[in-house]
Design brief:
- This protein has 3 domains: about 5-120, Gyrase A, domain 2; about 125-210 and about 385-435, Four Helix Bundle (Hemerythrin (Met), subunit A), CATH 1.20.120.430; about 215-375, P-loop containing nucleotide triphosphate hydrolases (Rossmann fold, 3-Layer(aba) Sandwich), CATH 3.40.50.
- It is about 45% helix and about 15% strand.
- It has 14 helices and 12 strands.
- The protein is flat and about 85 Å long.
- Bound molecules: guanosine-5'-diphosphate and zinc ion (ZN).
- Guanosine-5'-diphosphate binds near residues 226 and 243.
- One of its GO terms (biological process) is tRNA wobble uridine modification.
- It holds the Pfam family MnmE_helical.
- This is tRNA modification GTPase MnmE.
Length: about 450
């Protein structure tokens, strides 16, 4: 129900000089005028006494009215700025709710701003990212997205695709000339240029994501090889549960740390072995998801018995970047631990790193190896904040452009090229929210804090 009037405390809980109640929707003005007993004029700061329906005095402060559509949400908005104490704010909010508003869900103000066309989805997400920024550079990147820099890049790509589609579809009408049209260099070179732009954007989005979220790294391997011990080693503190019994890390555990200046999130996974009890099965499913989402996997093996096979998860979707690590070197006689490196279907086998989570042997080399794999060339001045969702969508765009290029090379029909471009364009539209499912919207806005 788009026109229900919503209200929330917009300032963080706790004490502060000022606390703000934000009201948005058709009844906002009426509620604001009842609370203040004044006629509210748009954009005028009006000093008022705030009273509830029973005329009890609750607080005094400033009322501000923004007339639709010139407000954050695009609807009528009233802000009551009172004293920033928890009880004062609660009493004001209760009075506003009693007058007919309902409590806003997290992110609902921004969701309305999106639905009313005040901003696109990328910008709405940037609002949340800006609020959640943990570093100055992350805040700068979120501000760039909020200012529309990321959206502009996406729109430019979209325009290029539309241009190509128009060209190709117009040519489809002259089907006898189709062969000439496809083998002519123009369309191929335009596609190549587009492909490069998409790759560049994907690269930047990846960096933006890392800036905001940290690089995802996942620890995989059989139970008892020492994943939790290694995690603790890396964290420099005992935080994951370590035990002698196989399969103790039932669920995935995520920790954040900084590796050579790069923010990283490491996930310790449940064992990858086949399990029949339900809890462990759920854990295994989450392991697969964690591996899919990770930029790098660390495949940990027990150097004292290296019979385990390479986990299937590492071969998903054409292969995941991983480092093979042999743990428990302290248990090894030099010669006993020289297992042959695992054959990976002709693909170059990763260098094996030898460590001991127990003694700390090889940990520095491992950290250096991790840093080497996850370092991006940062161009911080041009990075915009981005999310996993954007990166995934751009990967789909890249895939379809690649397909289109191949269609041209193999002299496939123009219809196929046009179809690939259509799919690429759809995926771009998902990023800015031009077409997006309600489920996705719920997921995105549910992550906001209340009052934003
Ligand atoms: P996980 O199931 O893969 O998370 O393995 P844990 O970290 O729980 O470790 C399983 C067992 O191996 C524990 O008893 C650890 O103390 C032991 N362990 C882990 N790393 C080493 C190591 O480098 N050397 C030795 N000797 N034992 C280790
Ligand atoms: Zn564990």
């Amino acid at each position: 129900m788009q026109n229900e009037t919503i209200a929330a405390i917009a300032t963080p809980p706790g004490m502060g000089g000022v606390g703000i109640i934000r009201i948005s929707g058709g009844q906002a003005l009426a509620i604001g005028q009842q609370m203040t007993n004044q006629t509210l004029t748009p954009r005028l700061a009006q000093y008022s006494v705030f009273r509830n329906a029973q005329q009890d005095t609750l607080d005094r402060g400033i009322a501000l009215y923004f007339e639709a559509p010139n407000s954050y949400t695009g609807e009528a908005v009233v802000e009551l700025q009172g004293h920033g104490g928890i009880h004062v704010m609660q009493r004001l909010l209760q009075a506003v709710l009693a007058l007919g508003a309902r409590q806003a869900r997290p992110g609902e103000f921004t969701e309305r701003a999106f639905l009313n066309g005040k901003m696109d989805l990328v910008q709405a997400e940037a609002v949340a990212d800006l609020i959640a920024s943990r570093s100055q550079s992350a805040a700068d990147a979120a501000m760039r997205s909020l200012n529309g820099e990321f959206s502009t890049v996406i729109h430019t790509l979209e325009q290029t695709i539309i241009g190509l589609r128009v060209y190709i579809e117009a040519a489809l009408d002259f089907s006898d000339e189709e062969i000439d049209f496809l083998s002519e260099g123009n369309i191929a070179s335009r596609l190549d240029a587009l492909f490069e732009e998409v790759c560049l954007t994907l690269d930047k989005a990846n960096q933006g994501k890392v800036l905001q979220e940290g690089v995802q790294i996942v620890l995989v391997g059989q139970p008892n090889v020492g994943k939790s011990s290694l995690m603790n080693r890396l964290l420099g503190q005992e935080r994951a549960i370590v035990t002698e019994q196989a399969g103790t890390t039932r669920d995935t555990i995520e920790e954040s740390l900084i590796i050579q200046g790069i923010p990283v999130r490491i996930t310790d996974t449940a064992g990858l072995r086949e399990a029949d009890d339900l809890v462990e099965k759920a854990g295994i499913e989450r392991t697969k998801q964690a591996v899919r989402a990770a930029a790098l996997a660390i495949w940990l093996r027990d150097a004292s018995h290296l019979q385990d096979k390479k986990p299937d998860e590492l071969s998903l979707d054409g292969g995941i970047d991983f480092i093979e690590v042999h743990n428990k070197q302290d248990l090894c006689q030099q010669d006993l631990c020289q297992a042959p490196p695992i054959e990976t279907n002709g693909v170059l086998t990763n260098d094996v790193l030898k460590i001991s989570a127990k003694t700390g042997q090889g940990i520095d080399q491992l950290i250096t190896a991790i840093a080497k794999r996850i370092t991006y060339q940062h161009h911080e001045e041009s990075i915009f904040s981005a999310r996993e969702r954007h990166v995934q969508a751009l990967k789909v765009v890249k895939f379809h452009i690649q397909q289109a290029v191949q269609c041209i090379q193999s002299l496939a029909t123009s219809e196929l090229v046009a179809e690939e471009l259509r799919l690429a364009q759809n995926s771009l539209c998902e990023i800015t929210g031009e077409f997006t499912s309600d489920d996705l919207l719920g997921e995105i806005f549910g992550q906001f804090c209340i009052g934003k």
